[in-house]
Design brief:
three-stranded antiparallel beta sheet
Length: 596
Amino acid sequence: MARLASLFHGKEFYLFLNISFLLLLSFYLASQFYPSDSHFQLNQFKQSSSNITSFKILYESTDQDAGCSNLHRYHDYKAKCAYLRSEKGCQPEGYIDYLQLFYCNCGRYPILGYTVLVLWFIVLFYLLGNTTADYFCSSLDRLSIVLKLSPAIAGATLLSLGNGAPDVFSSIVSFVGTGAGEVGLNSILGGAFFVSSIVAGIISILVGPHKISIDKSSFIRDTVFFLLVLSSLLLILLIGRINLWGAITFVSLYFVYVLFVATTHFCNLFPRSPILPSTRSLLAHETEGFNDLGVPLVAYVDEEILIPNGKDGILVDGDNLVSPTCYYFGLFLLILDLPLYLPRRLTIPVVSEERWSKPYAVISVTLAPLLLTALWNSQGGDSSGPKTGLLIYIIGGLAGITFGVLAYVTTDNSNPPKKYLLPWLVGGFLMSVTWTYVIAEELVALLVSIGHVFRINPSILGLTVLAWGNSLGDLIADIALAVNGGPDGVQVAISGCYAGPIFNTLMGLGLSFVFSAWHAYPSSFIIPRDSSLYETLGFLMCGLLWALAVLPNKRMRIDRTLGAGLLVLYICFLSLRLARETGLLQLHGSASSIVP
């Protein structure tokens, strides 16, 4: 675990991400300015239009929502490229058309295409977790202090939101942004199953010999409520549709849970630490030199102050000398460290003591409205004319200039603002939400494209890759807390294994249902049909029932029996799903065709 954590914390990994981002950006820009021979491919494709016409007549009546599922009926990459350009169902849901990038620009060199997709997937995953950890969670922590929330309320609301933000935004994007609702469903349930079985199971095995007991009332409260949530979700899936009021009712279950937590806290039935596992422990990384007060953008190299010293060399910390070559090489490395850092730092207001910088604060409040207007115009597409788009840009520019002047006049160089702190925190919260949503939208779109390229059902990728990636922080943080935190640490870690999935399920899927039902109002929103969701729910509920059966009989002592059972359940579930996807196990119907 230490090696994995050091990998994400290490500057080498961060430098690798920045270099990868620069290479990917250069490749993308080159592909836009020097496109492939698309006209030749399109003309060649049109010559076989009779095949396409007959193909559409054959499948149009039975597969209206096929999208790009017919892509692999063409074996030549040129034909696939032309098909992507002519098929409306293959239009990108994100900002980048990954399928055209793979087949049209990298068609002759598929290894290059695979490398581009994998590297960009790693970069997006890092950005999603790091934005949540360094910006989203920071705003939530300060908001809980300013709003004077009790530890129980803060832990059950704001901290849970910070921990589950990647899952929540990925789910919302999959329903609203990309229309791949099955990815969101599988990602949320897959993450919940992973945390409540793998994470809880590993914790139980590691701390089992110490014979540590946990609180019975809180454990039963969390597991029973989680079973109630899953039963409600099962009912929604069986019905196959949900209206706006039903979606709002599903979301409101989380506020009922918060009420239970607050009640037990205020009645002193179970006073406990408000700490919950946070992805910040895994993905929180920023260049320390950027966080000092009022320093220029390029001022430090490897946390050591470099001072020119004539021809002899450069002083490091005012004492040791380094050659000018090393100095400029260090500056070069520092510049490479900027691409992933600056865009977010220059658009998300940060007012924490350790990261305060007045230049960054003024620039961020100035550029934030411009970023929002640019995103608004990009989402509007052709619905708004050029005059409307220009007017929106003018309004955003004027708002940014106004906020920038106010920030410059009312803030100090050395300390963050003490008065009117709430608007700063709200602005930082909204901009971190914006960045998280945009990154999640691009990540889900990339995941769907990868599914098309590798001929893998995107729901499987959501169940495994997306769920595991979003839960990796919980895995490391919970295990570290349980191993090093004593009995209280074990209690908090086990509670997080159930409280976190409750939040993700109710808010992640609940808000997705609310937005989708609102869009379909007054009609009901049709839930994506995926029979494999019943398997996931069944195994997940079996894991909860196993924990409810074992722990009370063991006098609430965490032992290896609990952990072994949870691990076996998850391995059996994963083996069954993979066997079905690979064709080793054939069942009647398919995940996309079975109607409950």
